[in-house]
Amino acid sequence: MCGIVGFVGNRSCAGILIDQLIKLEYRGYDSSGLAIIQDDAVGVTRSVGKIRELKAILDDHSPEGVLGIAHTRWATHGPPSTRNAHPHVDCTGNIAVVHNGIIENYMELKQELQSMGHIFKSDTDTEVIPHLIEQFYTGDLVAAIRQALGKLSGSYAIGVVSKYAPDILVAARKDSPLVIGIDSDEKYIASDIPALLGYTKDIIALEDGDLAILSTDKLEISKLDGQPVTRTPFQVTWDSTAAEKSGYDHFMLKEIHEEPNAVLDTLRGRLSDDSVELEEIKLSAEQIKNIDRIFMVSCGTAYYASCVGKYFAEHILGIPVDVEQASEFRYRGPVLNERSLVIGVSQSGETADTLAALRLAKSKGAATIAIVNVVGSTMSREADNILYTRAGPEICVASTKAYVSQLVALYLLGLYLGQARGTVSPAEMAVYVDGLRALPDHIAKTLETEQEVAQIAEELAGNEHCFYLGRGIDFAVGLEGALKLKEISYVHAEAYAAGEMKHGPLALITKGMPVVCMVTQDHVRDKMLSNVKEVQARGAKVFAIAKTGDPETHRVADYTVNIPAGHEMFMPVLAVVPLQLLAYYAAKHLGRDIDQPRNLAKSVTVE
Ligand code: M6R
Fold first, then answer.
1. Does 196 have pLDDT greater than 90?
2. Which residue, judged by its Cα, is nearest atom 9 of ligand 1?
3. What is the rounded CA–CA span in Å between residue 46 and residue 55?
4. What are the helix (H) ranges across 426-560?
5. Which of 98, 175, 247, 495 is deepest in the core (most CB within 10 A)?
6. What does the mean pLDDT of the chain come to?
7. Over pLDDT 70: what percentage of the chain?
8. Which of 1, 192, 351, 595 to mutate to test the pocket of ligand 1 (most atoms within 8 A of CB)?
9. Which of 484, 510, 511 is CA-nearest to residue 581?
10. Cα dihedral sign for 307, 308, 312, 313?
């Protein structure tokens, strides 16, 4: 949802800003721009299209300044175009602003500013910010920024540079992420940590209502009213190669191949022979015993991971678990109290709806846990408890390794709560622990199916529609498989609980239609195979994902991809791998923009 970066130091910054923007391109990629202070003036360059278009312009004449801001856009107000690209400037062109978020009262502010004579040049909500600063400026830039921000409702992370204070970069945030990187006299701002990898590992996460003034010799952070605050830096452990493709054609394929390690890292230090240790969960034994209802709130892939988490948690805890799309949860008045546990699942830790759902839960007295990948993200700071997935940076817009690590984190959490409530015995725990420990090797083995899946994908890519069927936990995996396919290949895909087909969707089956069937759950295997035969009888071509040593599925399906037979409850971690590869190779065959699919952005920080 738009990426912003900024730099102040003693060396030319255009190249640095472009390099950092490229690392944030997954947040938005319809237009980009930068503003650099040169010869005490603000020079703005903007372009529609991907960042390479902006880079091409700069290759011809690059500004030399050492202080600047830059932006990559995901359009909200106004279509992608050069005039809507950031930075936006005031009437004089002396104040430039980059912004991520949405200014909800921009129409009213714009009309007011226009009536005072301000001339607007874009359709964006952002443009009110430089004009407001201009309006309030009477010789103190920071004071004018504070006043301007005080007028805004909505969300923002901003960077401001100006001719009026050519040595400082001003940054502020409210409900949109923003971090600061520090490397002695060089300072950076960025929407997300990957932009800073290779530049510094020392990071400060700004909090809502913070305003920072950065220059080569100082970093001052205060609240909007000017009250100074202290924010402690932390060190990121991700290295710079984590945000590079390392020889793979796409980040997506690289990230799928990183899944064995991602899972290993999610498990690291959290298992003993017959118990799960989650030191970061601070719920007291009494709090855990008193939980009478669990909610899992999340969006997209994280929501589908939560669907698997529900099956496991209900199975192991015997407590009702509601899985909810965060965008629905927050507006439907859910019944929450001190006995509720609300688990927010999010790769970025910044998704606006999930964050709002967690805030709502807290305000009602519920205990909250955030299962998050990005260290220092807003959810990780606001939730009562944080369980990091430790998958490393995920750059491709389509989530893959984050999904498997979310599954594993949900399993760990379920077991941890079960252990504390006494619903899982040490003997049962030992079996689960063995099952979890086997996962990294089993994923590696599953990845060996890559070439056969690539062939199926080629066949599938020629179709307009595709169905995914499963029962129980397999259905939950099918939901994620269908999302992956539609998201990156644009082939229409839907997942159904296999038993539902006769209640309507069966009417859509036509001759040759690909139907991907997950058959990993022994207790419903016969029923699932009946569903397979039902769709085949209507002409469907069935691609099954089944456990090694399941000749029956092999015999019935038109094509079977064999995956290792792990613990039944953990099969989603393995079954999803061929589904991810299927989507990847179908999209590749169709020549899609795999890492940056149309109309999407990695981190949805607006509603
Ligand atoms: O950062 P989050 O996990 O909160 O993001 C949630 C969804 O926006 C995300 O999973 C999205 O659905 C992915 N593009 C799916 O691949």
1. yes
2. 300
3. 10
4. 426-447, 450-460, 473-489, 525-537, 551-556
5. 98
6. 95
7. 100
8. 351
9. 484
10. negative
Residue 602 annotated in active site? yes
Q: What is the rounded CA–CA span in Å between residue 484 and residue 400?
A: 9
pLDDT tens for 516-538 read 999 999 999 999 999 999 999 99
d(CA 272, CA 561): 33
Using alpha carbons only, how large is the chain's radius of gyration in Å?
Answer: 25
- Regarding the beta carbon of 347 and ligand 1, being less than 6 Å apart is answered yes
pLDDT at 442: 98
User: What is the DSSP secondary-structure string of 260-288?
Assistant: HHHHHHHHTTSEETTEE--TT----HHHH
Structure tokens at 176: 């949109």
β-pairing, 340-346 with 293-298?
parallel
Tokens coding 54: 């902006």
Q: Which pLDDT score, from 0 to 100, does residue 602 have?
A: 83
Q: What is the pLDDT of residues 536-571, one digit of tens each?
A: 999 999 999 999 999 999 999 999 999 999 999 999
Whether 2 sits among the annotated catalytic residues: the reply is yes
d(CA 353, ligand 1 centre) in Å: 11
Residues 6+ apart with CB under 8 A from 322: 293, 294, 295, 296, 310, 334
Residues 332-366 pLDDT 10s? 989 999 999 999 999 999 999 999 999 999 999 99
Per DSSP, the three-state class of 11 is coil
> How many A from CA of 74 to the centre of ligand 1?
15
Any ligand 1 atom below 6 A from CB of 487: yes
580 lines ligand 1 (CB under 6 A): no
* Residue 449 and residue 562 in contact, taking contact as beta carbons nearer than 8 Å: yes
What is d(CA 514, CA 22) in angstroms, rounded to the nearest whole number?
37
Answer whether 398 contacts ligand 1 (Cβ < 6 A). Answer: yes
Cα(199)–Cα(481) distance, rounded to whole angstroms? 36
Which of the four pLDDT bands, split at 50, 70 and 90, describes residue 85?
very high
Query: How far does residue 397's CA lie from ligand 1's centre (Å)?
Result: 8
> Whose C-alpha lies nearest to ligand 1, atom 16?
398
> Tens digit of pLDDT for each residue in 148-186?
999 999 999 999 999 999 999 999 999 899 999 999 899
* Cis status, amide bond into 87, omega within 30 of 0: yes
Residue nearest to atom 11 of ligand 1 (CA): 300
Pairing of strands 340-346, 367-372: parallel
